[in-house]
Protein backbone atom coordinates (compact mmCIF):
# COMPACT_ATOMS: atom_id res chain seq x y z
CA UNK A 1 0.00 0.00 0.00
CA UNK A 2 1.59 3.28 -1.14
CA UNK A 3 1.31 6.69 0.52
CA UNK A 4 -1.54 7.82 -1.73
CA UNK A 5 -3.56 4.70 -0.98
CA UNK A 6 -2.91 5.15 2.73
CA UNK A 7 -4.07 8.75 2.66
CA UNK A 8 -7.15 7.78 0.67
CA UNK A 9 -7.88 5.05 3.22
CA UNK A 10 -7.58 7.50 6.13
CA UNK A 11 -9.73 10.07 4.37
CA UNK A 12 -12.41 7.48 3.68
CA UNK A 13 -12.38 6.22 7.30
CA UNK A 14 -11.56 9.48 9.07
CA UNK A 15 -14.56 9.14 11.36
CA UNK A 16 -13.31 5.75 12.58
CA UNK A 17 -9.96 7.27 13.51
CA UNK A 18 -11.58 10.30 15.18
CA UNK A 19 -14.00 8.19 17.22
CA UNK A 20 -11.23 5.83 18.31
CA UNK A 21 -9.00 8.72 19.39
CA UNK A 22 -11.89 10.31 21.31
CA UNK A 23 -12.66 7.03 23.06
CA UNK A 24 -9.00 6.57 23.95
CA UNK A 25 -8.79 10.13 25.30
CA UNK A 26 -11.94 9.56 27.34
CA UNK A 27 -10.54 6.32 28.76
CA UNK A 28 -7.24 8.03 29.58
CA UNK A 29 -9.04 10.88 31.32
CA UNK A 30 -11.19 8.43 33.30
CA UNK A 31 -8.15 6.44 34.38
CA UNK A 32 -6.35 9.64 35.35
CA UNK A 33 -9.26 10.90 37.44
CA UNK A 34 -9.80 7.59 39.21
CA UNK A 35 -6.11 6.86 39.86
CA UNK A 36 -4.79 7.31 43.38
CA UNK A 37 -1.99 9.94 43.54
CA UNK A 38 1.45 8.49 44.29
CA UNK A 39 4.38 10.42 45.78
CA UNK A 40 8.03 9.67 45.27
CA UNK A 41 10.86 9.92 47.81
CA UNK A 42 14.55 9.27 47.07
CA UNK A 43 17.91 8.90 48.72
CA UNK A 44 21.42 8.62 47.23
CA UNK A 45 24.30 6.65 48.77
CA UNK A 46 28.04 6.96 48.23
CA UNK A 47 30.12 3.82 48.56
CA UNK A 48 33.72 4.36 49.73
CA UNK A 49 36.67 2.30 50.95
CA UNK A 50 39.71 2.89 53.11
CA UNK A 51 42.74 2.42 50.84
CA UNK A 52 46.31 3.68 50.79
CA UNK A 53 48.42 4.29 47.74
CA UNK A 54 47.55 4.55 44.08
CA UNK A 55 47.48 0.81 43.46
CA UNK A 56 45.23 0.14 46.40
CA UNK A 57 43.01 3.05 45.40
CA UNK A 58 42.55 1.62 41.90
CA UNK A 59 41.78 -1.83 43.23
CA UNK A 60 39.45 -0.35 45.83
CA UNK A 61 37.54 1.67 43.23
CA UNK A 62 37.09 -1.43 41.06
CA UNK A 63 35.95 -3.39 44.09
CA UNK A 64 33.42 -0.72 45.05
CA UNK A 65 31.88 -0.66 41.58
CA UNK A 66 31.36 -4.39 41.84
CA UNK A 67 29.96 -4.01 45.34
CA UNK A 68 27.50 -1.33 44.23
CA UNK A 69 25.90 -3.83 41.86
CA UNK A 70 25.38 -6.19 44.78
CA UNK A 71 24.00 -3.42 46.98
CA UNK A 72 21.19 -2.88 44.46
CA UNK A 73 19.80 -6.29 45.37
CA UNK A 74 20.58 -5.70 49.04
CA UNK A 75 18.30 -2.65 49.08
CA UNK A 76 15.38 -4.87 48.06
CA UNK A 77 16.32 -7.82 50.23
CA UNK A 78 14.02 -9.50 52.74
CA UNK A 79 16.47 -8.79 55.56
CA UNK A 80 16.39 -5.01 55.05
CA UNK A 81 12.59 -4.93 54.63
CA UNK A 82 12.01 -6.97 57.79
CA UNK A 83 14.40 -4.78 59.77
CA UNK A 84 12.62 -1.59 58.60
CA UNK A 85 9.18 -2.99 59.46
CA UNK A 86 10.36 -4.11 62.88
CA UNK A 87 11.95 -0.78 63.85
CA UNK A 88 9.61 1.63 62.03
CA UNK A 89 5.99 0.50 62.24
CA UNK A 90 4.11 2.27 59.42
CA UNK A 91 1.30 -0.22 58.86
CA UNK A 92 3.14 -2.02 56.06
CA UNK A 93 4.36 -5.57 55.69
CA UNK A 94 7.85 -6.54 54.54
CA UNK A 95 6.47 -7.50 51.11
CA UNK A 96 4.73 -4.13 50.75
CA UNK A 97 7.96 -2.34 51.64
CA UNK A 98 9.88 -4.35 49.05
CA UNK A 99 7.32 -3.60 46.35
CA UNK A 100 7.70 0.15 46.95
CA UNK A 101 11.49 0.26 46.55
CA UNK A 102 13.28 0.79 43.23
CA UNK A 103 17.10 0.68 43.43
CA UNK A 104 19.67 1.41 40.71
CA UNK A 105 23.35 2.18 40.48
CA UNK A 106 24.64 5.17 38.57
CA UNK A 107 26.77 3.76 35.70
CA UNK A 108 30.57 4.07 36.03
CA UNK A 109 30.27 5.57 39.54
CA UNK A 110 30.04 4.34 43.11
CA UNK A 111 26.68 6.03 43.64
CA UNK A 112 23.58 4.09 44.54
CA UNK A 113 20.08 5.58 44.35
CA UNK A 114 16.94 4.26 46.01
CA UNK A 115 13.49 5.54 45.05
CA UNK A 116 10.32 4.78 46.98
CA UNK A 117 6.71 5.49 45.98
CA UNK A 118 3.67 5.63 48.23
CA UNK A 119 0.16 7.02 48.22
CA UNK A 120 1.04 9.28 51.18
CA UNK A 121 3.88 11.77 51.00
CA UNK A 122 4.60 11.71 54.75
CA UNK A 123 4.77 7.92 54.88
CA UNK A 124 6.99 7.83 51.81
CA UNK A 125 9.45 10.21 53.52
CA UNK A 126 9.49 8.26 56.82
CA UNK A 127 9.94 4.97 55.03
CA UNK A 128 12.84 6.37 52.97
CA UNK A 129 14.52 7.72 56.12
CA UNK A 130 14.18 4.32 57.76
CA UNK A 131 15.59 2.52 54.75
CA UNK A 132 18.55 4.92 54.56
CA UNK A 133 19.44 4.39 58.19
CA UNK A 134 18.98 0.64 58.21
CA UNK A 135 20.78 0.14 54.90
CA UNK A 136 23.91 1.92 56.16
CA UNK A 137 23.87 -0.24 59.32
CA UNK A 138 23.26 -3.44 57.32
CA UNK A 139 26.24 -2.77 55.01
CA UNK A 140 28.44 -2.03 57.99
CA UNK A 141 27.48 -5.34 59.60
CA UNK A 142 28.07 -7.30 56.42
CA UNK A 143 31.40 -5.66 55.56
CA UNK A 144 32.90 -5.93 59.09
CA UNK A 145 35.43 -8.80 59.24
CA UNK A 146 34.82 -11.63 61.75
CA UNK A 147 38.04 -10.78 63.60
CA UNK A 148 36.49 -7.50 64.71
CA UNK A 149 38.58 -5.28 62.49
CA UNK A 150 37.21 -2.16 60.86
CA UNK A 151 35.04 -2.37 57.75
CA UNK A 152 36.97 -1.73 54.55
CA UNK A 153 33.82 -0.54 52.67
CA UNK A 154 31.23 1.80 54.02
CA UNK A 155 28.13 3.55 52.71
CA UNK A 156 27.23 7.17 53.34
CA UNK A 157 24.08 9.14 52.52
CA UNK A 158 25.00 12.10 50.31
CA UNK A 159 21.53 13.20 49.12
CA UNK A 160 18.12 12.98 50.71
CA UNK A 161 15.97 11.54 51.93
CA UNK A 162 13.45 13.94 50.41
CA UNK A 163 9.97 13.73 48.92
CA UNK A 164 8.37 15.70 46.08
CA UNK A 165 5.53 18.10 46.85
CA UNK A 166 3.47 16.97 43.85
CA UNK A 167 2.48 13.40 42.99
CA UNK A 168 4.48 11.68 40.27
CA UNK A 169 1.40 9.82 39.11
CA UNK A 170 -1.04 10.11 37.60
CA UNK A 171 0.44 12.49 35.02
CA UNK A 172 -2.55 13.98 33.13
CA UNK A 173 -0.55 15.36 30.20
CA UNK A 174 1.41 12.18 29.68
CA UNK A 175 -1.66 9.98 30.03
CA UNK A 176 -3.65 12.02 27.52
CA UNK A 177 -0.80 12.10 25.01
CA UNK A 178 -0.28 8.35 25.32
CA UNK A 179 -4.03 7.80 25.08
CA UNK A 180 -4.24 9.89 21.92
CA UNK A 181 -1.34 8.01 20.33
CA UNK A 182 -2.82 4.66 21.29
CA UNK A 183 -6.20 5.75 19.93
CA UNK A 184 -4.61 6.94 16.70
CA UNK A 185 -2.81 3.64 16.17
CA UNK A 186 -5.93 1.68 17.05
CA UNK A 187 -8.02 3.87 14.74
CA UNK A 188 -5.63 3.33 11.83
CA UNK A 189 -5.66 -0.41 12.48
CA UNK A 190 -9.47 -0.43 12.55
CA UNK A 191 -9.58 1.63 9.36
CA UNK A 192 -7.34 -0.87 7.59
CA UNK A 193 -9.35 -3.79 8.97
CA UNK A 194 -12.62 -2.15 7.98
CA UNK A 195 -11.32 -1.54 4.47
CA UNK A 196 -10.18 -5.15 4.14
CA UNK A 197 -13.50 -6.49 5.39
CA UNK A 198 -15.64 -4.02 3.44
CA UNK A 199 -16.65 -5.70 0.18
CA UNK A 200 -18.75 -2.83 -1.14
CA UNK A 201 -17.75 -1.00 -4.31
CA UNK A 202 -15.69 2.07 -3.49
CA UNK A 203 -13.97 2.92 -6.77
CA UNK A 204 -14.24 2.42 -10.49
CA UNK A 205 -11.10 0.31 -10.77
CA UNK A 206 -12.62 -2.32 -8.52
CA UNK A 207 -15.82 -2.30 -10.57
CA UNK A 208 -13.86 -2.88 -13.78
CA UNK A 209 -11.87 -5.68 -12.22
CA UNK A 210 -14.93 -7.43 -10.79
CA UNK A 211 -17.03 -7.23 -13.96
CA UNK A 212 -14.18 -7.70 -16.41
CA UNK A 213 -15.64 -4.95 -18.59
CA UNK A 214 -14.67 -1.35 -19.38
CA UNK A 215 -15.94 1.54 -17.31
CA UNK A 216 -18.21 3.60 -19.53
CA UNK A 217 -19.24 6.24 -17.02
CA UNK A 218 -19.16 7.54 -13.47
CA UNK A 219 -22.32 9.38 -12.48
CA UNK A 220 -21.53 11.72 -9.56
CA UNK A 221 -23.74 11.83 -6.50
CA UNK A 222 -26.33 14.59 -6.68
CA UNK A 223 -28.48 15.32 -3.65
CA UNK A 224 -31.18 16.86 -5.81
CA UNK A 225 -31.57 13.70 -7.91
CA UNK A 226 -34.13 12.27 -5.50
CA UNK A 227 -36.59 15.09 -6.16
CA UNK A 228 -35.47 15.79 -9.76
CA UNK A 229 -34.12 12.52 -11.23
CA UNK A 230 -34.22 13.58 -14.90
CA UNK A 231 -31.54 15.71 -16.54
CA UNK A 232 -33.97 18.34 -17.78
CA UNK A 233 -34.56 21.95 -16.77
CA UNK A 234 -31.97 23.20 -14.29
CA UNK A 235 -30.55 19.66 -13.94
CA UNK A 236 -29.59 19.68 -17.63
CA UNK A 237 -26.58 21.86 -16.76
CA UNK A 238 -25.46 19.81 -13.77
CA UNK A 239 -22.32 17.66 -13.51
CA UNK A 240 -24.63 14.64 -13.37
CA UNK A 241 -26.11 15.53 -16.77
CA UNK A 242 -22.67 16.01 -18.27
CA UNK A 243 -21.62 12.61 -16.92
CA UNK A 244 -24.62 11.02 -18.66
CA UNK A 245 -23.62 12.74 -21.92
CA UNK A 246 -20.12 11.37 -21.50
CA UNK A 247 -21.63 7.91 -21.00
CA UNK A 248 -23.64 8.45 -24.19
CA UNK A 249 -20.45 9.16 -26.13
CA UNK A 250 -18.54 6.24 -24.63
CA UNK A 251 -21.41 3.87 -25.24
CA UNK A 252 -21.69 4.79 -28.91
CA UNK A 253 -17.98 4.18 -29.46
CA UNK A 254 -17.64 0.89 -27.54
CA UNK A 255 -17.44 -0.99 -30.82
CA UNK A 256 -17.57 1.16 -33.96
CA UNK A 257 -17.59 -1.88 -36.25
CA UNK A 258 -20.51 -3.52 -34.45
CA UNK A 259 -22.49 -0.80 -32.67
CA UNK A 260 -25.11 -1.88 -30.17
CA UNK A 261 -28.56 -0.66 -31.14
CA UNK A 262 -30.61 -2.57 -28.54
CA UNK A 263 -29.15 -2.06 -25.07
CA UNK A 264 -30.41 -3.68 -21.88
CA UNK A 265 -29.72 -1.60 -18.77
CA UNK A 266 -29.63 -3.69 -15.62
CA UNK A 267 -28.05 -3.94 -12.17
CA UNK A 268 -27.23 -6.55 -9.58
CA UNK A 269 -29.74 -5.37 -6.99
CA UNK A 270 -32.81 -3.20 -6.75
CA UNK A 271 -32.35 0.51 -6.03
CA UNK A 272 -29.00 1.09 -7.73
CA UNK A 273 -30.34 3.74 -10.11
CA UNK A 274 -30.71 1.68 -13.32
CA UNK A 275 -34.15 3.10 -14.16
CA UNK A 276 -33.05 6.69 -13.64
CA UNK A 277 -29.97 6.05 -15.75
CA UNK A 278 -32.09 4.41 -18.49
CA UNK A 279 -34.35 7.46 -18.68
CA UNK A 280 -31.50 9.96 -18.62
CA UNK A 281 -29.47 8.01 -21.17
CA UNK A 282 -32.48 7.93 -23.51
CA UNK A 283 -32.96 11.68 -23.03
CA UNK A 284 -29.27 12.35 -23.72
CA UNK A 285 -29.35 10.24 -26.88
CA UNK A 286 -32.49 12.05 -28.07
CA UNK A 287 -30.73 15.37 -27.38
CA UNK A 288 -28.04 14.34 -29.85
CA UNK A 289 -30.61 13.72 -32.57
CA UNK A 290 -30.99 9.97 -32.26
CA UNK A 291 -34.37 8.34 -32.66
CA UNK A 292 -34.68 6.58 -29.31
CA UNK A 293 -37.16 4.02 -28.04
CA UNK A 294 -37.25 3.49 -24.26
CA UNK A 295 -38.88 0.24 -23.10
CA UNK A 296 -39.80 -0.49 -19.50
CA UNK A 297 -39.18 -4.25 -19.25
CA UNK A 298 -39.03 -4.31 -15.45
CA UNK A 299 -42.49 -5.81 -15.20
CA UNK A 300 -42.29 -6.44 -11.46
CA UNK A 301 -41.41 -2.94 -10.27
CA UNK A 302 -41.89 -0.57 -13.23
CA UNK A 303 -40.78 3.03 -12.70
CA UNK A 304 -40.12 4.52 -16.15
CA UNK A 305 -43.61 5.93 -16.63
CA UNK A 306 -43.58 7.46 -13.15
CA UNK A 307 -40.27 9.21 -13.78
CA UNK A 308 -41.33 10.53 -17.17
CA UNK A 309 -44.86 11.44 -16.11
CA UNK A 310 -46.58 9.13 -18.61
CA UNK A 311 -49.59 6.84 -18.46
CA UNK A 312 -48.56 3.34 -17.43
CA UNK A 313 -51.88 1.47 -17.56
CA UNK A 314 -51.32 -0.08 -20.99
CA UNK A 315 -47.94 -0.97 -22.43
CA UNK A 316 -45.40 -3.74 -23.02
CA UNK A 317 -47.35 -6.52 -21.31
CA UNK A 318 -50.48 -5.80 -23.34
CA UNK A 319 -48.46 -5.75 -26.59
CA UNK A 320 -46.82 -9.09 -25.82
CA UNK A 321 -50.20 -10.64 -24.99
CA UNK A 322 -51.53 -9.42 -28.30
CA UNK A 323 -54.25 -7.25 -26.80
CA UNK A 324 -52.97 -4.06 -28.48
CA UNK A 325 -50.54 -3.00 -31.18
CA UNK A 326 -47.33 -1.28 -30.19
CA UNK A 327 -48.19 1.79 -32.22
CA UNK A 328 -51.32 2.27 -30.11
CA UNK A 329 -49.55 2.38 -26.73
CA UNK A 330 -46.13 3.91 -27.45
CA UNK A 331 -45.95 7.47 -26.13
CA UNK A 332 -43.87 10.43 -27.22
CA UNK A 333 -42.02 12.20 -24.42
CA UNK A 334 -41.56 15.94 -24.64
CA UNK A 335 -40.41 17.57 -27.84
CA UNK A 336 -37.50 15.19 -28.39
CA UNK A 337 -37.23 12.20 -30.68
CA UNK A 338 -37.98 9.87 -27.79
CA UNK A 339 -40.72 7.26 -27.70
CA UNK A 340 -41.54 5.42 -24.51
CA UNK A 341 -43.20 2.02 -24.15
CA UNK A 342 -44.38 1.65 -20.52
CA UNK A 343 -44.61 -1.68 -18.77
CA UNK A 344 -48.37 -1.97 -18.84
CA UNK A 345 -50.30 -4.26 -16.52
CA UNK A 346 -48.42 -6.61 -14.20
CA UNK A 347 -48.40 -10.19 -15.56
CA UNK A 348 -48.29 -13.35 -13.43
CA UNK A 349 -45.37 -14.77 -15.46
CA UNK A 350 -42.95 -11.94 -16.39
CA UNK A 351 -40.00 -14.19 -17.29
CA UNK A 352 -41.98 -16.35 -19.70
CA UNK A 353 -43.56 -13.31 -21.29
CA UNK A 354 -40.25 -11.50 -21.78
CA UNK A 355 -38.67 -14.60 -23.28
CA UNK A 356 -41.51 -15.23 -25.71
CA UNK A 357 -41.43 -14.95 -29.49
CA UNK A 358 -43.67 -11.91 -29.23
CA UNK A 359 -40.87 -10.08 -27.36
CA UNK A 360 -38.34 -11.04 -30.02
CA UNK A 361 -40.69 -9.79 -32.76
CA UNK A 362 -41.26 -6.54 -30.89
CA UNK A 363 -37.52 -5.89 -30.66
CA UNK A 364 -37.21 -6.44 -34.39
CA UNK A 365 -39.90 -3.81 -34.99
CA UNK A 366 -38.29 -1.36 -32.58
CA UNK A 367 -34.86 -1.94 -34.14
CA UNK A 368 -36.28 -1.01 -37.55
CA UNK A 369 -38.14 2.05 -36.25
CA UNK A 370 -35.53 3.62 -33.95
CA UNK A 371 -31.80 4.21 -34.05
CA UNK A 372 -31.29 3.04 -30.49
CA UNK A 373 -33.52 1.00 -28.16
CA UNK A 374 -32.92 1.32 -24.40
CA UNK A 375 -34.52 -1.41 -22.29
CA UNK A 376 -34.84 -1.03 -18.54
CA UNK A 377 -34.74 -4.55 -17.08
CA UNK A 378 -35.15 -6.16 -13.68
CA UNK A 379 -32.14 -6.68 -11.35
CA UNK A 380 -30.10 -9.77 -12.08
CA UNK A 381 -29.69 -11.10 -8.53
CA UNK A 382 -33.38 -11.20 -7.66
CA UNK A 383 -35.12 -12.61 -10.76
CA UNK A 384 -34.16 -13.97 -14.17
CA UNK A 385 -36.10 -11.34 -16.14
CA UNK A 386 -33.01 -9.23 -16.75
CA UNK A 387 -31.01 -12.10 -18.23
CA UNK A 388 -33.95 -13.11 -20.43
CA UNK A 389 -34.14 -9.62 -21.92
CA UNK A 390 -30.37 -9.14 -22.18
CA UNK A 391 -30.02 -12.31 -24.25
CA UNK A 392 -32.25 -10.75 -26.93
CA UNK A 393 -30.44 -7.38 -26.90
CA UNK A 394 -27.21 -6.42 -28.64
CA UNK A 395 -25.54 -5.93 -25.28
CA UNK A 396 -26.03 -5.08 -21.64
CA UNK A 397 -24.99 -2.14 -19.48
CA UNK A 398 -24.40 -3.03 -15.82
CA UNK A 399 -25.13 -0.28 -13.28
CA UNK A 400 -23.70 -0.41 -9.74
CA UNK A 401 -24.09 2.05 -6.90
CA UNK A 402 -21.02 3.41 -5.14
CA UNK A 403 -20.74 2.38 -1.49
CA UNK A 404 -23.82 0.14 -1.57
CA UNK A 405 -23.35 -2.73 -3.97
CA UNK A 406 -21.34 -5.70 -2.75
CA UNK A 407 -18.51 -6.82 -4.99
CA UNK A 408 -19.68 -10.43 -4.78
CA UNK A 409 -23.14 -9.44 -6.04
CA UNK A 410 -21.67 -7.50 -8.95
CA UNK A 411 -19.38 -10.38 -9.87
CA UNK A 412 -22.30 -12.81 -9.73
CA UNK A 413 -24.42 -10.49 -11.89
CA UNK A 414 -21.68 -10.19 -14.51
CA UNK A 415 -21.19 -13.95 -14.44
CA UNK A 416 -24.92 -14.54 -14.98
CA UNK A 417 -24.73 -12.45 -18.17
CA UNK A 418 -21.53 -14.02 -19.43
CA UNK A 419 -22.81 -17.55 -18.75
CA UNK A 420 -25.49 -17.07 -21.43
CA UNK A 421 -23.10 -15.28 -23.82
CA UNK A 422 -24.58 -11.82 -23.27
CA UNK A 423 -22.31 -9.10 -24.61
CA UNK A 424 -21.44 -6.94 -21.60
CA UNK A 425 -20.81 -3.55 -23.15
CA UNK A 426 -19.47 -2.03 -19.97
CA UNK A 427 -20.27 -0.91 -16.46
CA UNK A 428 -21.38 2.34 -14.84
CA UNK A 429 -20.58 3.48 -11.29
CA UNK A 430 -23.61 5.38 -10.07
CA UNK A 431 -23.71 7.96 -7.24
CA UNK A 432 -19.92 8.08 -7.26
CA UNK A 433 -17.97 10.35 -4.93
CA UNK A 434 -15.98 12.55 -7.24
CA UNK A 435 -14.05 15.80 -6.96
CA UNK A 436 -16.19 18.86 -7.43
CA UNK A 437 -16.42 19.79 -11.06
CA UNK A 438 -15.20 23.26 -11.85
CA UNK A 439 -18.18 25.44 -12.67
CA UNK A 440 -17.03 25.93 -16.23
CA UNK A 441 -20.39 27.37 -17.30
CA UNK A 442 -22.54 24.41 -18.14
CA UNK A 443 -25.08 27.06 -19.05
CA UNK A 444 -22.63 28.81 -21.37
CA UNK A 445 -22.95 26.29 -24.16
CA UNK A 446 -25.99 24.57 -25.65
CA UNK A 447 -26.52 21.11 -26.98
CA UNK A 448 -26.69 21.50 -30.75
CA UNK A 449 -27.57 18.40 -32.70
CA UNK A 450 -27.44 17.18 -36.24
CA UNK A 451 -29.31 14.14 -37.54
CA UNK A 452 -27.28 10.94 -37.63
CA UNK A 453 -26.81 9.17 -40.91
CA UNK A 454 -27.84 5.55 -40.55
CA UNK A 455 -26.04 4.37 -37.38
CA UNK A 456 -22.99 6.67 -37.51
CA UNK A 457 -22.78 8.31 -34.04
CA UNK A 458 -22.90 12.10 -33.86
CA UNK A 459 -22.07 13.45 -30.43
CA UNK A 460 -23.02 16.80 -29.02
CA UNK A 461 -19.55 18.27 -29.53
CA UNK A 462 -19.53 17.35 -33.23
CA UNK A 463 -23.06 18.66 -33.64
CA UNK A 464 -22.04 21.95 -32.05
CA UNK A 465 -19.21 22.24 -34.55
CA UNK A 466 -21.82 22.11 -37.31
CA UNK A 467 -22.77 25.72 -36.60
CA UNK A 468 -25.99 27.19 -37.88
CA UNK A 469 -26.61 24.34 -40.29
CA UNK A 470 -26.91 21.93 -37.36
CA UNK A 471 -29.55 24.14 -35.79
CA UNK A 472 -31.80 23.52 -38.74
CA UNK A 473 -32.67 20.07 -37.35
CA UNK A 474 -33.16 16.82 -39.29
CA UNK A 475 -33.49 16.91 -43.00
CA UNK A 476 -36.13 14.19 -42.87
CA UNK A 477 -39.42 14.14 -41.01
CA UNK A 478 -38.25 12.57 -37.73
CA UNK A 479 -41.69 12.65 -36.16
CA UNK A 480 -43.16 10.47 -38.84
CA UNK A 481 -40.35 7.92 -38.57
CA UNK A 482 -40.63 7.69 -34.78
CA UNK A 483 -44.33 6.92 -34.98
CA UNK A 484 -44.04 4.55 -37.94
CA UNK A 485 -44.72 1.43 -35.90
CA UNK A 486 -47.08 -1.47 -36.75
CA UNK A 487 -50.62 -1.06 -35.55
TrEMBL record:
Topology with respect to the bilayer: Multi-pass membrane protein
Q: Where is the composition biased (Low complexity)?
A: 464-473
Under Gene Ontology molecular function, one entry of this record is:
protein tyrosine kinase activity
* Localization of this protein: Cell membrane
Q: Where is the major localization of this protein?
A: membrane
Region Disordered, as annotated, extends over 464-487
| Gene Ontology annotations for the cellular component aspect, listed alphabetically | plasma membrane
Q: Which UniProt keywords apply?
A: ATP-binding, Cell membrane, Membrane, Nucleotide-binding, Transmembrane, Transmembrane helix
Which protein, by its recorded name, is this?
A: Capsular exopolysaccharide family
Source species = Micromonospora siamensis
The organism's taxonomic lineage, starting at the top: Bacteria, Bacillati, Actinomycetota, Actinomycetes, Micromonosporales
